[in-house]
Amino acid sequence: MTTFVDRVELQVAAGNGGHGCASVHREKFKPLGGPDGGNGGRGGDVILVVDQDVTTLLDYHHHPHRKATNGQPGAGDNREGKNGKDLVLPVPDGTVVLDKNGEVLADLVGQGTQFVAGQGGRGGLGNAALASARRKAPGFALLGEPGEGRDIVLELKTVADVALVGYPSAGKSSLISVLSAAKPKIADYPFTTLVPNLGVVTAGATVYTIADVPGLIPGASQGRGLGLEFLRHVERCEVLVHVLDTATLESDRDPLSDLDVIEEELAQYGGLGDRPRVVVLNKVDIPDGKDLADMIRPDLEKRGYRVFEVSAIARQGLKELSYALADIVATARAAKPAQEATRIVIRPKAVDDAGFTVTKEADGLFRVRGEKPERWVRQTDFSNDEAVGYLADRLNRLGVEDALLKAGARAMDGVAIGSDEDAVVFDWEPTMSAGAEMLGRRGEDHRFEAPRPAAQRRRDRDAERDEAQGEYDGFSPF
Ligand SMILES: Nc1nc2c(ncn2[C@@H]2O[C@H](COP(=O)(O)OP(=O)(O)OP(=O)(O)O)[C@@H](O)[C@H]2O)c(=O)[nH]1
Ligand SMILES: [Mg+2]
Question: How far apart are CA 240 and CA 325, in angstroms?
Answer without folding.
Answer: 10
